[in-house]
Amino acid sequence: MAKEIKLQTPLTSEMLEKLNVGDKVLLSGTIYTARDAAHKRLVELLKAGKELPFDPVGAVIYYVGPAPARPGKAIGSAGPTTSYRMDPYAPVLMDAGLKAMIGKGPRGQAVLDSMVKNKAVYLAAVGGAAVVTAQSVKAAKIIAYDDLGAEAIRELKVVDFPVFVANDTKGNDIFKLGVEKYRIDN
Amino acid sequence: MKEINVAQIIPVIRNLCIDANYYASPDVVEKIKFFMEKEESPTARDILALMLENHKMADKEQMPMCQDTGVAVVFVELGQDVHLVGGDFNEAINEGVRQGYQDGYLRKSMVDDPVIERKNTKDNTPALIYTEIVSGDSLKITVAPKGGGAENMSEVRMMKAADGIEGVKDFVIDRIKRSGGNPCPPVVVGVGIGGSFEQCALLAKKALLRPLTEKNADPKWAAVEDEILERINMLGIGPQGLGGRTTALAVQILYRPCHIASMPVAVNVNCHVHRHKSAVIE
User: Is B258 found in the same domain as B134?
Assistant: First the structure.
């Protein structure tokens, strides 16, 4: 446990099968932001058989609504939002090729099952460490749903973005394992 | 009678919104350091260290510590000898919020209506304003930006007197257990007991305003807070829910008398960024 691994997007099943819960990952490449409102639209597009604003195959979605950038900065503070709100949409996106989700907090069983089935992973970023996280974002541009403001879909270029493997491709869940390890019955 | 022009309030609110979001409170820093020393999980220690680094970087970069710069919760203590002049008081508060969130590069997170349209109001208004008339001739304003992730883990329960203090403890602990990693632990737990359905919820939010390093003035309630905190930190949830001993930084209780038939209890959960800043206009 707790190895530090560098990963470059796009992600493949082979790359992800080597990961175990608790591993620290430094992620580089292109990732897409989306939260509640954008997810609703993405899934509506998939259900209508239409193309998404980005190629979902091998893609990474980061659950974040960043703060506005100061002039000269790529992005404002940009930590993860709570992930369970995206649970109703995540399996559909994984079936379309999504390989990793970045957020905070545990996921529901249907999402865990879909990760095993699709060889995808869930990565935990540190919530509330949003300035540190923003330093890994080198460029950001809105590619869809500008009307949603902070919730618009952005394409981010990241270098060594720090995350922990929370759910691996084998069905392990750090939110259960970690808690079991440190729980004291009372 | 003292006159205060509401125009004076606007820049005060503006600056409180920015300062609360940019600068970590010393009591929060102290508590995180205290628990980091005792933390057994290496991952948890890493995460707590990252939170402390984030405080420093937010100050240096002049950026909000968290991208969720929250709903602007504004507590006002208005002296009864103050006469507010020069315009509408609530509108002045909203103008301060508007300016603070714009000038401070803070995220605008309010949608209206809450269900069908959910359209962003684009300036983070309306603020949630709670005004209390107190004695004196000054005006105290506290801005407490409240993030959505932790707020969503809050709950009101209409308990029975027969549930007793053990029932209250179990409810608070169970609420945090069910929250897991969602509210950005280590959390601060505000508990409001008594009053009524709506008053206990407001008490729970106000309970969050007490400095984390200050004990409950009533020793019997201080003991209850200590016990709940200890038991929450035995849950194993840890920072961000990844496992560890540091699940909560503090438990803080406020209570009011209530009806003979009732025992309402509210838990308002706050994240580790735990923001609030106050100013007094005299």
Answer: no
Residues of chain B with C-beta less than 8 angstroms from the C-beta of A106? 180-182, 241
**Catalytic pick from A11, A21, A39, A106?**
A39
Segment B113-134, tens digit of pLDDT: 999 999 999 999 999 999 999 9
Report whether pLDDT(A1) > 60: no
Angstrom CA distances, A184 to A45, B42, B46, B66, B245, stand at 46, 17, 21, 31, 9
The predicted complex's ipTM stands at 0.93
How far CA B2 is from CA of A41, B80, B81, B138, in Å, comes to 54, 10, 6, 8
Q: What is the extent of the structural domain holding B12?
A: 2-20+65-146
pLDDT tens digits, B23-34: 999 999 999 999
Q: Is A105 an 8 Å CB contact of chain B?
A: yes
**Residue B251 region, left (φ>0) first, then alpha (ψ -120 to 50), else beta?**
beta
Taking residues B173-190, report their average pLDDT: 97
Tally Cβ neighbours within 10 Å of residue B39: 24
**Can you give the pTM of this predicted structure?**
0.95
Q: Given CB atoms, is A175 within the 8 Å cutoff of chain B? A: yes
To the query of whether residue A92 is one of the catalytic residues in this protein, the response is: no
Q: Within a 10 A sphere around the Cβ of A86, how many other Cβ atoms?
A: 23
Q: CA triplet B177, B179, B181: central angle to 5 degrees? A: 100
Domain assignment present for residue B209? The answer is yes
Domains, chain A, with CATH or none: 4-182 (3.20.130.10)
B256's CB contacts (< 8 A; 6+ apart) are B192, B193, B194, B195, B199, B200, B203
